[in-house]
Design brief:
8 helices, 212 residues
């Protein structure tokens, strides 16, 4: 999965126009929204083809589906560094070096940031472990973690365009939205964990300078 940084072409804008800066901002915002929507649809189409709403394929699935799942499962180690479970061994999603780096960032580099509350850092570390464990077993939770790590990394180091984080967030929201029509899925542990993690993101970033 590759996310391209967006560099807009602005040659058509008359820089002598007193409103040119506003036009530039509006143009960039429209184009970023369009690209996020298009990339989100591409991701969701890929997930629907491969994931089909379950971690493991049905017992009566075709041999092609079973072979595909086996190929993904055997090509991804069950555990990552530090004994962490590997989400990509559970889902039919191709991992990238950047996605693995984002998971590392979430576990090892994400801080609570509210320095005035001394005891919160230990609690936040415990929360991160729980959120990661939930993400190993829930697709929406995985994309929430990728979104959180990408937005934090962008805010700290500006290593990537914010569109990357927006794409992960959009996919997480779409998965959760699709689940709301099914009572059993809407109230399961994975959905509750993903929603809770997203809520914690909002709480943590209340006083941050970068809020996506």
């Amino acid at each position: 999965m590759v996310f391209q940084n967006y560099t807009p072409e602005l040659e058509w804008i008359d820089q002598s126009d007193i409103n040119s800066r506003s036009r530039v901002r509006a143009h960039v915002a429209r184009e970023r929204t369009r690209r996020v929507s298009w990339q989100e649809q591409e991701i969701m189409n890929n997930l629907r083809k491969r994931f089909r709403g379950r971690v493991l394929p049905s017992t009566n699935a075709s041999s092609g589906v079973l072979d595909e799942h086996y190929a993904f499962a055997t090509s991804s180690p069950e555990y990552l560094g530090g004994g962490r479970g590997n989400p990509f061994a559970q889902y039919l999603i191709e991992s990238t070096t950047d996605m693995l780096a984002l998971l590392d960032h979430f576990i090892y580099s994400l801080n609570f940031r509210l320095e005035t509350i001394d005891h919160c850092e230990a609690d936040f570390n415990s929360f991160k472990k729980l959120a990661y464990s939930a993400a190993v077993n829930d697709l929406a939770g995985l994309y929430v973690l990728l979104f959180w790590a990408a937005s934090d990394r962008h805010g700290l180091y500006a290593q990537s365009d914010a569109t990357e984080a927006e794409n992960y967030q959009a996919v997480a929201f779409r998965i959760l939205s699709d689940r709301m029509s099914e009572v059993d899925v809407a109230t399961n542990d994975g959905t509750i964990g993903a929603v809770t993690t997203m809520a914690c993101f909002e709480v943590r970033n209340t006083e941050d300078k970068f809020v996506l």
